Amino acid sequence: MTSAAAGGPPKTSRAGRNLPAAIAVGVVLGAAVLLSLFLVRHVFLGIVALAVAVATWELADALKRGAGIEVARWPVLVGGQAMVWLAWPFERAGVMGAFTVTVLVCLLWRLRGGVDGYLRDASASVFAAAYVPMFASFAAMLVLPEDGAHRVLSFLILVVSSDTGGYIAGVLFGKHPMAPVISPKKSWEGFAGSLVAGVVAGGLVLPLLLGGQWWQGVVFGVALVATATLGDLVESVIKRDLGVKDMGTLLPGHGGLMDRMDSLLPSAVVSWLLLRLFLPG
Question: What is the pLDDT, as a whole number, of residue 189?
Fold first, then answer.
């Protein structure tokens, strides 16, 4: 009798995931995003806002249980919602205005806790406000132009292509760790797979979905592979610093929602910047 049949833990892939569960969750999340984009595209802001709230809560919990850091949770949660929703009518001005007010409220909120740990907790609160809701607000701003659904889709296709290409190449060929102390399973072979997949996807997606040039798609692909990889490494080093395996347990096969947003958050910022430059619309 196998361990699974005996009620043991589910099998994981060579990359450390429960692959069937991870795929199922990915399909459900992808379907929800696609429905929001192509039925009423501004509903996508609601999905971003919900993801921001959950991911912020998970990050605050991880900081608390891993290092005893007290994020100003409610100011960051409320301010994060303001950043996302004010992106619709006011774009950058709304996001930056909400972020600035959130920082000020966080500094005031933490005064109630006294002197000990003030700088640590206040800095973590500002970091949480920037890392999750402010970065995610750039994804919200992607959907605002008339071709916004295609802009968001291009961004998501590139990040998924990077992750998938890296995963497949890493599992099949990975031998040389990219950052063994931070993320032992991330290899240079996996990064090469991400780069190939990202460049091919970018060269196809930008001309086909947005009417851009193929070379713009290649630049877009390289940039998003770099930011997706950076995002993955940054969250890995945060988790190692805190001594936690996952940010949460919400998604079977993935960990927490924050564990799936690591590559998306910085990539949203770069996507908005590059698409604004290449296709001002």
Answer: 95
